[in-house]
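Hi R.,

Here's the chain you asked about this morning:
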Amino acid sequence: MSEVFAGSVKDATTSPELRDAADALPGGVRRPSISELRLADDRPAYTITLPRLAECARDARRLVSSALGCWGLGCVEGEAHLLVTELMSNAVAHARRANVRVTVTRLDVLAVRIAVTDMSTTLPSPREADGQDESGRGLAIIESVTRGRWGAGLLPWGKCVWTELDATRRAAL
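And here is the predicted structure, written out as tokens:
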């Protein structure tokens, strides 16, 4: 999971598509830095550090939309929004520190990885939600949408929970 932050980083807030994702934070919260990454194995990625607040899921969705738009993968935007929202929701509920990092990585021409990194070392575990439960379905949703292409890994200072989307089916439609 350390690959999420390996490689060179440049400020991407000058990109009009990404600047909008950074400008619309809840009142009083400082503007985050959106960065474009080039990972050690030359895969492109975009990342943003956000406050660990439920309303920042909107900003994570904007980052995902911008990255997918740049890469011509808008066909998976709906699923990607659902996935990043679930990942953010879990981080808001279970992480320990004030911020989380969202990273969108292009794995190949038609595949992306969406990751949320936080400072908690407790890995997520799927559970069965009862009919009356108001939470506990996020990982089951991620499992279903991605057909099992998700995971979590410990870092020396926290964890990274990720999911992958493949646009191959959508591109053929």
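One quick note: Residues 1-31 have pLDDT under 50 and may be disordered.

Cheers,
M.
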